[in-house]
Protein: Making large colonies protein
Organism: Cedecea neteri
Amino acid sequence: MVADSQPGHIDQIKQTNAGVVYRLIDTHGPVSRIDLSRLAQLAPASITKIVREMLEAHLVQETEIQDPGSRGRPAVGLMLETEAWHYLSIRLSRGEISLGLRDLSSKLVVEDTVDLPTDDPQPLLERIVFQVDQFFIRHQQKLERLTAIAITLPGIIDTVGGVIHRMPFYDVCDMPLGEALGNRTGVPVFIQHDISAWTMAEGLFGASQGARDVIQVVIDHNVGAGVITDGRLLHAGSSSLVENWPHAGRPLR
């Protein structure tokens, strides 16, 4: 039993170490291999192997770094290579779908917004998959290596299973959006409620950056609140969310 599980355990350690090194390069880059070894608390030989694999995968790139006051030869530093990998961001809202291709720095490569009528008799899942296919066909010359699809939308969502239980304005019941797009594209699909995603973004990069407890209230077509408590998103991964929405065509009260 131990012998059978050992290779998988070793692979997991390698993936964990690679993730640590990648995040350190993201945070401190450009950074030398020596400093990277110290920061990651990994042997120089391990750093060399991990970095070589990342260079071959076009995840990082080498650049010269010159220490202030130094007259010697510039050292070789490492920084992320963000333009060689892309992800697709999708925003579903009332009557339209927005699709944006971004690199790993979140720089927008190309974006389309397409009508997605609420009263179309064709199932919503089929229409979403069709629009994703058409987006890739239109922009195939700009597409590099696709890593993932990230989707935000209003509704009652199982973010772990990728299932949309209910949505305002659309006739949806337990729509397996994550599974359908994952099978279609072969990449991971991440789905989050739009207000929760907004709250997370504010906590990471925006007005509430660094705050441990946050409540963000949004009043739009729907009314909802994203909640961060003790640095973690409330209801993350579940279908629960502090939200209410009106029926299509009815005024918000």
Notes: Residues 246 and 252 are 6 Å apart (CA to CA).
